[in-house]
Amino acid sequence: MKTPHLVLMQGGRRNGVPTPAPHIGHAISSAIHAGFRIGRPVRIGRVYGNVVGYNIGHFGLFSGRDYPLLVRTRYGITKCSLSEVAAA
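Now predict its structure.
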């Protein structure tokens, strides 16, 4: 299976305040370099799942900077930090 190529583009809000894409990009790059690519099986404690994407959200309690992984489990999709997941 071919791994999709991720391109992160610097954007901006309508009011002219730039989004913090470099921080999110760094978090996503760290996740990819740690081996957490899309489709990869992972564990969150004893719950198994698969990485289904990357969190590019830049605000709220679960921003992409701190929770860069989107993991699908039998309980639904969740945002995870690198410290919460392990390779399955």
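The longest strand covers residues 47-54.
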